[in-house]
Amino acid sequence: MKDKAVFFDRDGVLNVDVDYLYKIEDLQWVEGAREALAHLYKLGYKIFVVTNQSGVARGYYTIEDMNKLHAHMASELEKYGAKVEKFYFCPHHKEGKVVEFAIDCDCRKPKPGMILQAFAENDLDKEESFLIGDCKRDVEAAEAAGIRGYLFKEGSLLDFVKGLL
Ligand SMILES: [Mg+2]
Ligand SMILES: [Zn+2]
Hints:
Layout (H helix, E strand, L loop, with lengths): L4 E4 L24 H10 L3 E7 L1 H4 L5 H17 L4 E7 L22 H9 L8 E4 L2 H10 L2 E4 L5 H8 L1
Parallel strand pairs: 1-2, 1-4, 2-3, 4-5
The structure holds magnesium ion (MG) and zinc ion.
Zinc ion (ZN) binds next to loops.
């Protein structure tokens, strides 16, 4: 049987969006975010994060910095009983100054590359899967990948998730 999945944008959905977050001490969870992921996990959803991280291409932080933050987030979430299957990230930006990442890629949302990669790496049911983001480009990426996308703006992410199910 195929798994159902929920894709989360990171900044503005899981953590409060401070510009170019990469330091663990600057991480501030959105209200109800950890609880929302735990709730979905208990319901059998596979949880993925799909995040544009152009700060890498811009030279503000490295992939290693970002990975440390994601490992920290994953361990915090585990304490709440939630497991993130994988953090997909796009380190690119065509105007970035780190040459290696200064490309016009297929993974930066609104392009669906990260979501499609998750579908390629897992046996997921598109009909049963959806994305939650806080920007139009998140929802556009979801739609381009053939899944539903929902716009989260404020309040408790747990309440928002419960309202969708
Ligand atoms: Mg966002
Ligand atoms: Zn990319």
